[in-house]
Every structure is written in structure tokens, then in C-alpha cells.
Amino acid sequence: MTLINSERQGEPLKPCDLFDMIGGTSTGGLIAIMLGRLEMEVDDCIEAYRRLMKLVFSEKANSLPVDWSGNVKSQYDSRKLRSAVEDVVSRCGLSPNDLLNDGKVRPCRVFVCATAKDTMEVQRLRSYNSSEENTPSPTICEAALATSAATKFFDPVLIGDRQFIDGAFGANNPVEEVEEEACDIWCPSSRNLKDLVKCLLSVGTGHTGQQGMNDNIFKFISKTLVRMAIEPVSTKRRFMARWRNECEGGRCFRFSVEHGLEGVRMTEYHKRPLIETATQDYLLHENQQSQIRECVTNLARKEGKTNIKFEAIIQERAMRIKLQHDFDRSQIAIQLRRPPSWLVPFDRNLSYVDRDVMVKVKEVLFRDHCQHEMAIFGLGGVGKSQIAIELAYQTRDEYPDCSVFWIPAMRFDSIRQAFTKVAESLRIMPVECKENDVFPLICDHLSQRTNGRWLLIFDNADDIEEWTEKSTSSSVQISLRDFLPKSPLGSIFFTTRTVQAAQYFASQDVLHIPEMDEQEATCMLKKLLINQDLINDGKTMCQLLKRLTYLPLAIVQAAAFINQNSTDLVRYIALLDGQEQDVIDLFSEEFEDNGRYKSSRNPVAATWLTSFCQIENRNPLAARYLSFMACLDCRAIPISLLPSANSLEQEKAIGILCAYSFVRPRPGGHCLDLHRLVQLAMRNCMRSTNDWKQWVNYAIMETSQKFPSPESKNRILWQEYLPHILRLLQLKSSRYISKASYILMFKVSRCLIFDSRLEEAESLMLQLQQEYGRHSRPESLVTLSVDHNLAIIFSLQGRPREAEHLATRVLQAQLKLVGPDHSDVAITLCTLASIHFSLSNLPVAEWLAVAAIKGFIRKKGVESYHSLTTIGVLVRIYIQQGRLANASELGNIHYLLNKKATGIDSPDTASSEESLVSIYVLQGRYAEAERLCIQSLEKVEKVLGRAHQRTLQTMNYLIGILGSQGKDADAAALSLEVAQESERNYAPDDPKVRAAYQQVQWYTSLKPLHQRVFDRVAHARKPRRIIATRRLHHRVKLYGGLYCPRRPVTDDTAIQIIKKAVLALPGGLDGVQTVPDKLCNDQGSADKSSDLFEFPYYMSNVPQPQFCFGGGISILAHIFG
Question: What does pTM read for this prediction?
Fold first, then answer.
């Protein structure tokens, strides 16, 4: 392969890229699978085979080949062979359970030979579909094991209900199997494979030497008969005799080491140096060197894969040559027959890259003996006209007696002018002829069989309405469709941009032309570039082609720019990755192209202008959608985000955009992909008409109304919208933020906070703060809501002091602006409670949380989002204070409320479960904590994804619980997952990544003895847990140096308030059965507590300034004074 790639001087090829079929048996079968199905490099294949042999044959499983009952017994461990094969498959990125034939069409067909144990018939296990019935469908591993299951060495392999051993009995040399299989595929009728083969390569395992017949009956049975059954020499002789002419002609080659490998057995992997030496000596021999040079030259000239109908193509070409020869010899025919007409306005494109399309087109147009009409459609610039030009020239080469006429079909006038030229070339144009009489004239002439073969090519037949014209003298319409000639010797070919037009012209034979694949695009770029040194950088070339979306017109324009400006590929990629306007300017460059009309504009950016106009005329809603989508990200645009319209009208509009290949629906049908270059061209078009800013503002207004509220229940929807809204906000050129922009940016920032994308959320909020700081009063509700959001972001970013300062300032302003009873004040109190909790100011945090809860219950009810959030904060405060009884009671209420309000699978319910997990851990209930934490992790991962920060946090909870139970192995495995996921999400030097790997090291390293005792003995953990919990309890001074014992606070005032609110719900709440009699009976005290909230007794020693938040404003005095 090294010599072949050096000869080709292009992209390195692998054997699977070069050969159409690879077949093998036993060792050859393994190699065939590795090279063909796993698509490995030769060096990688050799190394993998070495590892496999060493693992499998390093030790015998049984010394005797038979057991006591006389049955054959395998001498080597079949499990090792399976493990080795699975390892090879896994290293190639596939699963051991992947099928050998998974239904995908691959460039190289692979089969291996195995012997069915019940019938002793050779069975071919294929990687491709076959016409044979009852063909097994093995996995890759099963096929490799079956072809390797040599009797005495390994156990038979079960595939389905049948057992298989290796194919040595009957196909030890599989060359005849390969020959027969190739005949079945490429020449099933004639069975004449020799005329079709370009190169047939047979590789043997080496000559084993001449051995006589053993007289000893046991040796005769065990050795001589086996050798006679599997001896491949006779197969080689028959094969070489049949293919002698092809071998002499340099189309068939056989390589097999002749000397030096006698006596080397399959299991003797340790004799690898001897095998390599003998092989090297064989290949360096003078006779083999010439054979190798011929083989390399033959394979290096191979251009593409062989079509299944290759035999039919060869026979058809031979028939045409024979007909041409007879035609040339017939002088009478030359004298009598008028020479065929040729009316094609373009030269042949020498840079044309052959695609599978041409074979399909010619199969349709020139099959049978009747007229065929065919249409191809695709995106503008995809190469339809170039296909038509090449079709014209190939038709002239293959059918010299065929007239070819090219009709530009952009407009009715251009069609009429072209028909006039056709009439003149056929010499049937009368002296006086009305302008529209030429259509029936051409139709009548070409419909006559005596006028020979012809091909009509209608290029750019995009607008169906152009095919009808109303007569100036009457109201009669002329339909060109009625004047298309009909003859068994004629064919008509259309190129168009829409599937509707293609179906109008050719109802059945319609073919979509996609963008090129990477191989075709690479070949095209190589042909176009003048500086051939640029093609050596294959990786950079692939990057360039990917950015050009493999669009032929874009590739031609890029090559023209590179050639004219003597730039390189890296510089051109940098231009494409630059500012959007620079990219548009680049695609707007004019360039020379002999394969396009002189009147047409060549740049990629201008290619679709005609289609834009047609869409706007046919369906204004489709044009509106296209302009709207140009303002969004081009990938996965939700249909629900488009401007509202009637369902039927929306379906039609999207259908037209799909028909022009501007958009493609994604699987499922609820999202669309807009072609990236079409999006750039559309933006350029809107800028040129000064409509760009209006469309961006319109898109912002539409999306601000459609964007859902930032709640967890809407997360799936707003995650689909987010990439497009963020892209839209980037396009907003004006610094002025309209009301719609403010609403949209505010909603998006809240969603980003929910999604832990704090930097992006902070950027949006700072923009709003800067803009509204200039145009609004500092005390306005708008600026306060922005500052409040910023405080939340600062708190989540680990900046609690900044968050406290900003949230306190917001609270002061709210108290002045709207008073203490406003719901915004309660929301800010909740935020401040969370901030002070992070600062470990637990008494302050508790007081703020209870005050917020009372405000929310009064204004919004206990089931509101903010109420539940604040209750969750209060539960965490109770846990941190060591008040586990209060925390457990309130945590269960919180869980039931969340379950009822948001659903059992919501992240909010999972959050309340995590609070209960923390309580269970502190109570020593590790088994319950583990079960509940796993349940919570499943919910969070399902909704937020594996990489989300919240998911990683829950995984860390579970790691701690596992470690507390002494399950270090499970904790280490989960820690490694967290570390790897963190490394993918953050920079390698990020503290989160370092901490994650430190955690892995902790659980995998040997711990001190006392730590192991604490981890594994539950009774040893209990005192430590009690001491840690007691530290959270306050010490109350009695007298002098006397203190009361440390006990948790038992103030359940807030719980009773929440329970009372719960009882007021319709139907109550499952799980909350009773409320203490004191709260139910003492309505006066309950009402009083909702209006006046005093500090709990255990906060009496806290200094009063802690409750004053700057400027001498006491929240206690403002709210409860």
C-alpha cells in the first residue's frame, strides 16, 4: 500500500478504498474482516494480528486433542480467541455486537468462508446483501470466530441454530470462492469474469513443502487425509491455469512464500522473525520485484469503485463500438443520412468530476426503445448544468448519430429563441413564420422516426408559469408542455431547482442532486487548483470543503479566488472564518466560468436571487419565513418558532422552501436546517435592500412573544429556542434596547441561569444594566429587576459579598418605591436569604426566609414557584443549623408540594429529594439516602443531561454517601466519571477539574488505618456524626460559666404557617394529615404572626446591626414595625 500511495501522489488509500471485494478463510478471513469490514490500515492490521496470536496461542488449554470418549477436544481456549477478536473490534470504534452485514453500503465487499458442521458445505459469511436464501446474519465477532474455528484448535461457533468450523475443508484457498462470488455480483448471466477484472490478487500462507503418504494407519488418518482435504496447491494450479492469460497480461497476481516456512505451524507465533525473514527474501527476489511493480502500477491507476451493472455497461459499450464500426463502413448510410445536429453553447468542462448521477441518468434516458423524460433538481450551484453539459458530450461520444439540442429555459422568450435556432440547424425554418409557430414545427419534425435519434436538454426550467404564454391577439394560452416532441428515438432531459417543476416535467423519473461528498469535492478542487503543492495538505483541504458545504459552485469560486490571488488554503479558511460581511463579500466576487451563461451572475451570493424572487411571487409566507430564518442560527430551527400562520398555509410555505432545497426537515419533522450559504446570501440580499434591521427587530418582537417563561417545565422548549435567540441578539446592531428586546433578554438570562451558563447570563444582564442605567431612573422596577438578577448570578458564581451588596441595595430601593407588601420585596428577601446562607449567616438567613415565605403565602399562595423555592432555602438552613427534626418535617412537606405542583420527574422535585438525602445522611440513614439520591440523579440527568453542573453536583452527593458506607470501589468509579465529564466541560487547569481528580485519587489510594475503620464500621462513624451535628447547636449561657447542654432549636413557627397554608389548598395535600391543635384553634395568634414577625428567642444574642442592610434602613422596622 505504501508503494501504491506513493505512485498515486494523493490522499493515502486503505485496502478498503482500493479493492471492490476481499475474501478469506481462517487467518485470511480474519485479515479480510480487519482490512475490509473494520477498514484498518495495513500496519494496524499486522499489529492487531500479532497481539491476537500472542494472546490466543501463548498457552494450551488441553494437551490432548481428544477426550476419554474419543471426541475431538479443542487444545486452545476459545474464550481467549473471542476476547482477542472483541478487543480488535472495540479498538476500531465498533461494538462486538455489530452485525457483519449491518445494511450499510460500503465501498469494499467482504466475505469469509466457514464450514457448516452439519452438512460440511462451505458457507460464505458476507458483509453485504446477497440473493441467496437462508444466509446467516452473524456479528463481526461471530464471523471472525467461525472462519478461525479450526478443528482441534478451537470449539465450533454457534450462529443462530447452526454450528460452524473454519473453511479449511473445501476452501483453504478461497480464490475460487472469490471468483464465483464476483461472478454472482458483476456478471450473473454470462459468468465471464475475466473481461471485467482489472486486478485480481491472491495471497497465500506459504509453501509447506512436499510430503509423502504415511503408511502408519494413525498418521495416515490424522495427517495425510487432513493434508489432502485442505491442501490448497491443487486449487492454485487450477486457478493459474484458468487465469494464465490474465497473469501474463498484468491483471492477475499470486504471491506466496515458496521457501523457508516449511514446518512452521499456525500456533508458532514466536517464530515471527523467521516468517518475516522468509517473506522479505521472497519479495526481494528479482522475479517477485517485477510482479510487484506491475501490481502496484495496475492498482495505482484504479479510479473508482465498480458498478454492479458493470457487465451491462461493457456489453453496451461493445455494442456501440460494433454499431459505430458498421456505420463507418456503410458509405451509403453516410451519403444518405444527414449529419446529426449539435447545438450546445458550452465547451466541455475538463474539471468535471464523475458522480454516480451520470450512470443513473443514462440508464433512464437510453434504456429500451421508447422515449424517456427525466428531470434532476437541486439547490442552485449544486452542479445541475454541469451534469447536463457532460451528458451532452457523453451522448455525442457514445451515440454519434444522436442530435443534441440545448434549450435555456429561464424565460419563455429564451425557449422560443432556442427553438428557432433548432429549426434553423435542422433546416426546416420557413421563410415566413410567426413567432410561436416554431413550437409545433419542431414538435412535428422530431416526432417523426425517420429523422433519427435526438436529445433535448432544457436547462434551468425553474418556473412552470414561464411555460405558458397568453397570445396577444386572443385569450388563448400557449402551453409548451403540449409541444414537446414524442418519438421512440428521442429523450428529454430537464434541470430545475424545485421538485414541483421536476415532477411537472417528468412525473416519475425525478432525481435529486445533493451536494458532493468529501471524496468528489476533493477531486474537483484538485483539478481546479493551479498550484498543485496545495493539494498535499489533505486535512486543511477537508476543512475548507466542509466550510464550503461541498457545494460545487462555491468550490469553483474558491479555487478561482485562490488561483487569481496566489493565496493558500489556510488563508482562505481564515477569510471564511472572519466577519460575516467579509464572507459575504468573498462569495460576491465575480469569476470566470465557461460553463455558465454570459448573462448570468456567477458569484455564489447572487446564485439564488432568482429563486428568492420566484418564492416571493409564488408564496409570500415562504419568503417571509426565509427572511425570518436568516436572522436565526441555521441549524435545527423549530417550526414552532416561526411566525404564526394557518396550519395549511404554513405547510405549503415550508414545502416550497424544501422544494428549492433551501431548508431540510430534520427527523421527526419539527425542526428545519437552513443551508448556511443560502442564509448568508439571504442576509446580503436584505442588507442590499435596507431591510436587514427591520427584519432583525421584527424577529426580536416575534420571538419575545413566543419564548416561554423560564420555568423547569418549559425547559425542553426554551432549550430548542436558546441558540436562535442568542444568535438573534448578537445580530442586534443598535445599542438601544426596546421593550421586546428587554423582555427577551430577561427571559433568556433566567434560562441561562437555570442552565448554569452564568457568564452568558451575566453578559446579557450587564447590557441591560448599562442601557437602562442611562435611560431610566435608578429606582425604576426595570433596573431593580436587572440588578436582582445580577445578584443571583453573583451568588451562583461564588461571589456572595458582591451579591449581598447588590441585593441589599435592590431591597432598599424596593422598600422606598413599592413598599413592604409588594411581591418583589418577598422575592428579594428570598434571594438575600440564599446569599446569607452561603455566607453562613444562618440566623439572618432564617429570618429573611421566613419573612419571604409569609409574603409569598399572602400574595401568591404556598404552591407558587417562589414559595416553593424559599421553602427549599429554609430546609437547607435548618439542616445547616442541625435542626434535623424541623428540617425533616419541612423537607417532606416541600417534597410533596413540589411533586404536586411540578410533577414527580421535575428538577424541583429532585432538589427537594436532595435535601432529604442530606437529612438522611446526618441521621445515619445511609441506605435510604443512597436510594433516594440515585432516584434524584436519574431525574436530574434525564431532564438536564449528564454534563450539566447540577447533575455533577448530585453525582458528588452520591459519591459522598457511597464513601460514607465504605463502598470505595463504587465511589471511585463514579468519581472518575465526574472527573472526565468535568474535564470535557471546563479547562484542564480549572479548580473543579483538579478537585474531581483529587477525589478520584482519594478513593483509589490506600487510606490510613483509622480512616478505613471509620469508613467500614458503622458504630465508629456514629460518634463523629453526633459531634459534627452538635457543633451546629447554640450554647446558651445560664449564669457565670454555666451553659445549658447543646440542643437543637425546636422553633416550628414557620412550619406551622406553611401547614396552615397547605390545609387551605383544595383537597389539602397527600401526606400532610394533621396540623397541631394549637395552630388550628388559636386563629388570632396565627393571624397576628402573619402580620408581625418577631425574632426567635435563639436569635436574641445576635447583634441588631446584622438586620440593618445599609443606610440605616432596618428591614424589621420597614416590614414589621
Answer: 0.56
